């Protein structure tokens, strides 16, 4: 092998020696940190992304031009102590380790791709399944940080909905436990596995770095012995072997990285300077670098034909990174080559600018839509009602707005945090008010439970009394009080009612056993009612119906007392059959049929236990409905006077008149029922 080939081999060894362990600050910032520091790290990353700009070709050009001066400095420092050589090469090491604009652009592009602000649980779980075998830890870490906040948000929404349902079913909020659905369980399991995988990777990486540090320090000592020793025929081979070993050794801790590289480069510079071959190697390197940079120019020019602008920018940033680290080229080729590479880059950046301008317009339009929804949601925080149905109705409306919100795309980054905070604060505020309502409702039910428990105690104290008449009145009074008290908590409702009913049944069953004569009267009542039913069927099935006779017979039926318990269903079915025969008789006018039906209904109601009170409540209810409908009719009639004469107004008038007619029909029916109640008093 001649000297030229040896020089070429040594040059290849030097240029192919890529300092893998020289990691940029951007890479180090992506390493895993403890949980307590994650939030701070994300804020710093966001700030860095906003400050970052496009790759500035001028910086690379200036750096390349300055390399010639760097080479001169190295030559002058060749015979100086190693401490001085470290200083002279510090600039080169720093240049290798500083953050590059391409990194910042790459992070920018990934941020745009990893947008999970509106993702569903199904989309998120699909994504985490997709990356569960991902070996690129930085890519894995970026996805985990992007999806976790959105999934936590969806988990809280599901939890709140489950809580609302739990409370609405009568349960206590404090007893609520939420375990999530199958997607939640799968997500947290996969997330934990991937986070453990990520943490283990970085822990192993740090351990390996410490091992690599010791190995490289040993290599430096060996190299220093060669440089300071006497020249021999085997020294070049020894240096080559050390270079290969150095290259194979992985990264070291960042704090020691610069010093190692400074010492390593200084020792190599001294070695080649002492042997008067440094400039020959440099010339060979520049020719090789020229070829490599020409290939990068061709690749950059080809990117202009790509349709996917995001991918083109990412690849261009990678080309810039390669271009910067290749090293200097012959002086006569330096400027033309750089201008060619810069022109290809500028063409891509121009397209990128147009793309982001379009995206900016879309984001601004989305911001307007989201601000409109924020105004709507803000009104929900002012809602208040004492009715569960109204709260549930408002909840459905709010969840519909939430769907609209999630269907809208992204907004400008500087407005995203403020916009999301405004929407979700109002959203959560509504549910906080709803929770408070149900807490107060539960408090009222607890009060009702205490009242009913007092009635149960009284009933259980009276159930063995043998003062049949007076005790029966007391039980009826307790039953009336029971019905007037509102609902109790759902979980004790059946148990509470069963206890009260058991006490009442116990007394009345004993009373029935002691009053056989009374049962005889019930049997007589049954026969009387059957007889009246026969008379009603005969009077109401002919062509000539006497309404007065029918009313008298109906009143006679309702005035007859109780029948045996086992015959209640039988006599009721018999009377219902007769009632249908009468009401289906075409000889009876429709208005008379309606009055007759109402009279029968009210008479039957009166004849039930507590009938007087039921009639009284029914009367008040009908009067309220009549008053409400009359007010509505008056309002609608007034509104019709304001309609102008037009095709549209005529349509509105017709619709309004239809509503008035239906209301008046309902009003007549209610008045008929009210008259039937009055007839029973």
How would you describe what is shown here?
The radius of gyration is 46 Å and the shape is elongated. It contains 25 helices and no strands. The N terminus is likely disordered. With 681 residues, the chain is mostly helical.
Largest sheet: none
Helix amount, in percent?
over 70%
User: How many β strands by DSSP?
Assistant: 0
CA-CA gap between termini: 129 Å
What overall geometry do the principal axes of the alpha carbons give? elongated
What is the number of helical segments per DSSP (H or I, 4+ residues)? 25
Class from secondary-structure proportions:
mainly alpha
Poorly predicted ranges (pLDDT <50, ≥5 residues)?
1-112
Proportion of residues in extended strands: under 5%
- How large is the radius of gyration? 46 Å
H-E order: HHHHHHHHHHHHHHHHHHHHHHHHH
Mean pLDDT: 75
List key phrases describing it:
80% helix; mainly alpha; 681 residues; elongated; 0% strand; disordered N terminus
SSE blueprint:
Blueprint lengths: L2 H13 L9 H5 L5 H17 L5 H20 L5 H7 L1 H8 L3 H13 L7 H10 L6 H32 L13 H47 L6 H14 L5 H21 L3 H25 L6 H18 L4 H50 L7 H20 L5 H50 L5 H17 L5 H25 L1 H25 L6 H13 L8 H16 L6 H17 L4 H30 L6 H34 L1
